[in-house]
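tool_call: predict_structure(chain=1)
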Amino acid sequence: MRVHELMTTDVIGAGPETSLKEAARRMIAADISGLVVVDDQGVLVGVISEADFVKTEADRRAETRAGLLRWLFPAKTFPDSERTVGDVMTTAVVTIGPDADHAEAARVMGKAQIKRLPVVNHEGKLVGLVSRSDILRAFARSDTEIVAEIRDRVIKGLLWIDPKPVRIICQDGNVTLSGLLETKSDAELLAGLTRRLDGVVSVRDHLTWAIDNTTVELVRAIPPGPNW
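tool_result:
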């Protein structure tokens, strides 16, 4: 399943000029731990998380206690205006494209140890957000959905064969295929493609065939000449 089929497109974010107070209000209201940051053109420029707020608060407290330092080092400058998202956001953001496979998204999140991935197009513009729970949905498909995809997408759509001779049983993602197909190659393709479907845990292949077309020898159309 592709990322664009799983991602959330109604993403709560902020701009670099958004105040930290406003960013915190948005996170609390939505009960989320971070915000994506985009510029006026919709290009992803960073993310801000609870960790960024914690660090900011620690820095602020350090500045508050720096009264003696202010007197000793009057040239030292401290920000007088309210800090913005752009001041504290993380700019090294791990992203993924909308056409990536959900398994790739899972690998990226696991490697980066993150729970959410911003989804950007080839121009770097934010088009959605995919989370661990979104990825899990791809593996938590019902048995009915899996059977329907095997019958309609694989057998009819890809192999172009009649699904009536094929019996499909699916229990908790464990698929059993049985029935008589015309050729051995069709049977092998059906089992192989079924194993690659989202939500399929295992495949028991009890398919049989009328013709073994995988051992047909190539015959020369022209008799060999003297140079053969």
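agent: Confidence is low (pLDDT under 50) at residues 62-66, 68-73, 75-80. Proceeding to next step.
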